[in-house]
Design goal:
- The protein is an alpha/beta fold.
- It folds into 3 domains: about 160 residues, Rossmann fold, CATH 3.40.50.1980; about 210 residues, Rossmann fold, CATH 3.40.50.1980; about 30 residues, no CATH class.
- The protein has 17 helices and 16 strands.
- The strands form 4 sheets. The chain has a 6-stranded parallel beta sheet with strand order 1-13-12-11-14-15, sandwiched between helices. Strands 6-5-4-9-10 form a 5-stranded parallel beta sheet, sandwiched between helices.
- Strand 7 and strand 8 form a beta hairpin.
- Helix 10 packs across helix 11.
Length: about 450
């Protein structure tokens, strides 16, 4: 079922690998011309424009953008007990992991009387996006809200598309997850118009002010991503998320049934999802193909999974050794990387580029999606070579506080003047010497 790329006997350069490995082809630039008018219209007309686009794209028009708090309470009260217990556990584990990411202010005494302090200050107000579409993602509410709360963000709004089946409100499980986390502000709006409304704010249908945010985080489709690109600068963003992806580095010790199940689980997201196997064992590749043929037909979303697995973004890469496989997965820089090899922990320790690494046969990506304690909002499209997933740090800004005494400034004044003159910016030096009764 998986197409094959045979790299046995050769080790292409990282640049060559990036050009030949399976990858979803998503062109954000190609939709910017469609998204820009939406963003501009929401800027001009606010809620009225956002609701009009909601009606057009989601086939439902909510009576208001902000969901009444009573609806959140009712959604939580009506939540299935098993799902509530699972969300409670997911939240507990996520809070434990993210609590250890908090940063402490650090003061460095550069010289006597001269200090620089790095203060970590949270973003004041954040919009957290939970996608709708083919699935319901209360787990994304958890993954966005927990690090923001841990960072100390004082004002949070969860945004999720309205559902015609639920009277123009987001899915009740999304509302319940928000309530469980103590978030009282939820907006029923999705897509590009959601990002624009978060950025510009507006006045709701009942006259309530919808305050703009300083940052928007959370994954979505290419149109939402295009809106984030257009509005970056006015607002901060976490990343430009593309289709989800898994890479599995496996050798002959891996269980082909496990490997196939994990590839299928990622392909279940949507038809553009990428599932990539990298292995030094042709026998394992054959066995995984046989398992895929056996397992795919038994899934609920067979057609979607089959399309994803047969797409150009998925495939099997054959390599000569696990070391060569490491070079491949580092070049690919997967959102999710599983290591299913002998001595998997040692192999995982050598990986340089991945959004998250799942070690050994009992750490599937599905665990990270829900209850590992890690965050599942991760860089896609090779961005793990230079970017990290969502964390407490995402919501913090480091501010340097410079505090020098007169004596400490006088001590370094000649160096400041010398560098200012070297850059032909003499007024910079004069701003220092002026403090000591001299303009020169």
């Amino acid at each position: 079922m998986l197409s094959r790329t045979d790299l046995r006997g050769r080790v292409p350069s990282p640049a060559e690998l990036r050009g030949m490995l399976p990858r979803a082809d998503t062109d954000v630039d190609a939709v910017l011309h469609q998204v820009r008018p939406i963003v501009d219209d929401v800027r001009s007309r606010g809620v009225e424009a956002a609701l009009a686009y909601t009606e057009r794209f989601d086939q439902v028009r909510p009576t208001s953008v902000r969901v009444p708090e009573q609806d959140l309470k009712e959604a939580l009260d009506g939540l299935d007990a098993g799902v509530r217990a699972a969300l409670d556990e997911s939240i507990r584990r996520a809070r434990a992991v993210h609590a250890d990411q908090r940063r402490a202010d650090v003061t460095t005494e550069v010289v006597p009387g001269g200090t620089v302090t790095e203060r970590w200050v949270p973003v004041r107000r954040v919009g957290l996006y939970a996608p709708g579409g083919l699935a319901v993602y209360p787990s994304s509410v958890v993954m966005n809200v927990v690090p923001a709360q841990t960072a100390g963000v004082e004002s949070l709004v969860v945004c999720s598309p309205p559902q015609a089946a639920f009277g123009g409100r987001p899915h009740p499980t999304i509302l319940a997850a928000a309530a469980l986390l103590g978030v009282s502000e939820v907006w029923a709006v999705g897509g590009a118009q959601a990002v624009a409304l978060l950025a510009y704010g507006g006045t709701d249908t009942d006259g309530t002010a919808l305050e703009p945010v300083d940052m928007v985080t959370g994954p979505g489709n290419v149109y939402l991503t295009a809106a984030k690109r257009l509005l970056r600068g006015l607002i901060g963003i976490d990343s430009e998320a593309g289709p989800t992806e898994i890479a599995i580095l496996a050798d002959g010790t891996a269980d082909p049934g496990h490997v196939a199940a994990d590839l299928i689980s990622q392909a279940e997201h949507d038809t553009l999802a990428a599932s990539v196997l990298v292995t030094d064992s042709a026998e394992l590749a054959d066995a995984v193909d046989a398992e895929l043929a056996r397992q795919v037909g038994r899934t609920k979303h067979t057609e979607r999974i089959t399309t994803a697995l047969r797409g150009a973004q998925s495939g099997c890469v054959l390599v000569s050794t696990v070391d060569d496989g490491l070079a491949v997965v580092d070049a690919y820089a997967a959102e999710h990387l599983e290591i299913q090899t002998a001595d998997a922990a040692a192999v995982a320790a050598r990986v340089r580029a991945a959004g998250a690494i799942f070690v050994g046969p009992h750490s599937p990506v599905s665990l990270g999606d829900y209850c590992a304690g890690s965050n599942h909002v991760l860089p896609t499209g090779g961005c793990a070579r230079h970017s990290s997933g969502l964390s407490v740090q995402t919501f913090l800004r480091g501010i340097h506080v410079v505090d020098y005494s007169r004596e400490a400034l006088a001590d370094v004044a000649p160096e400041v003047v010398a560098l200012a003159n070297a850059e032909d910016l003499p007024a910079h030096g004069q701003a220092v010497t002026a403090r000591f009764g001299s303009a020169g």
